[in-house]
UniProtKB/TrEMBL annotation, chain A:
Classification lineage: Eukaryota, Metazoa, Chordata, Craniata, Vertebrata
PANTHER family linked to this entry: MEDIATOR OF RNA POLYMERASE II TRANSCRIPTION SUBUNIT 22
Protein name, entry field: Mediator of RNA polymerase II transcription subunit 22
Broad class of where this protein is predominantly found: nucleus
Keywords: Nucleus, Transcription, Transcription regulation
Automatic annotation (TrEMBL), chain B:
Source organism per UniProt: Xiphophorus maculatus (Southern platyfish)
Stated name of the protein: Mediator of RNA polymerase II transcription subunit 11
Alphabetic keyword roster: Activator, Nucleus, Transcription, Transcription regulation
Molecular function GO labels: transcription coregulator activity
Gene Ontology biological process terms, A to Z: regulation of transcription by RNA polymerase II
Length: 140, 143
């Protein structure tokens, strides 16, 4: 049975895509915000009547505000994607984390084995005395 | 002898009470923390934009409040752009596209076996302690 295989996007293309998303979203926020502030200016002479112009400006501001929010959410998604990419592909920090955990685990293992060995030695001394007592008694 | 055995049993109770996972503390990754800060900055950008538009909608604007919000808006958005750009540049340098094949499984297994040895010794010492106490009680009853 033929299995469908999805080829992964190359690293460079993915990071270029991240860059493009970042620039587009920042540009969208800046442009839309600038246009909102420009639209807030009240002009004396308008091509259409004041109520119509007010209605148009109101609708335009709504759309631009929605664009700013959409760009903000897109940036949050980008940050989430970057976090995921960082966790999976930041080899230096992954190597550091692995070596630190290995170090801690080996230290714990060494401490445990050292204490077990010292306990064994103490019990061996006591056992020697007990054996002497037992084999020289009438219960052997 | 009995006191020494009981002391050893207490030692193993203390040693094995700290589980393996307690020693595997999560390492705070500085880069992930920076990305958390960037998320907060994005929220600040949107909040400042909203505050500025709200202030402009009033009949009398508070100029100093507008200036403060505008400066914060510009600072936050430039910080977002710079930090995310820096993270992407760093990932361009270090990412290989291959999966990481490192593992802590072997040391974790060795440590688990060491703790199992300690647990087994604790169990055996406990049995020995109970046997000694039973013998002592028996002798006291005979007396």
């Amino acid at each position: 049975m033929a299995t469908q295989r999805v080829l992964p996007q190359s690293k460079e293309t993915l990071l270029q895509n991240y860059n493009k998303r970042l620039k587009d979203d920042i540009k969208s926020i800046m442009d839309n915000f600038t246009e909102i502030v420009k639209t807030a200016k009240i002009e004396d002479e308008t091509q259409v009547s004041r109520p119509t112009q007010a209605e148009q400006d109101h609708y335009e501001m709504h759309v631009r505000a929605a664009n700013i929010v959409r760009a903000g959410e897109s940036l949050m998604k980008l940050v989430s994607d970057l976090k995921q990419f960082l966790i999976l592909n930041d080899f230096p920090s992954v190597n550091d984390a692995i070596s630190q955990q290995n170090q801690q685990l080996r230290a714990l293992q060494d401490e445990c084995d050292k204490k077990l060995t010292s306990l064994r030695d103490e019990i061996a001394v006591d056992l020697y005395e007990l054996e002497e007592e037992y084999y020289s008694s009438r219960y052997k | 002898m009995v006191v020494g055995v009981l002391k050893a049993a207490v030692f193993f109770v203390v040693l094995s009470s700290g589980s393996l996972s307690a020693f595997l503390t999560r390492m705070a990754n500085e880069r992930l923390r920076v990305l958390e800060e960037v998320e907060k900055d994005i929220a600040v950008v949107l909040q400042c934009a909203g505050n500025i538009v709200l202030e402009l909608s009033k009949d009398k604007h508070n100029a100093s409040h507008l200036d403060r919000q505008l400066v914060q808006f510009q600072t936050s958005i430039s910080r977002v752009e710079n930090e995310l750009g820096a993270q992407i540049r760093y990932l361009t340098q270090v990412a290989t596209g291959q999966p990481h094949e490192g593992s802590t499984y072997s040391t974790r297994k060795d440590c688990q076996m060491s703790l199992n040895r300690a647990e087994y010794a604790k169990v055996k010492l406990g049995e020995l302690g109970r046997t000694c106490e039973a013998m002592l009680e028996q002798q006291q009853q005979q007396i």
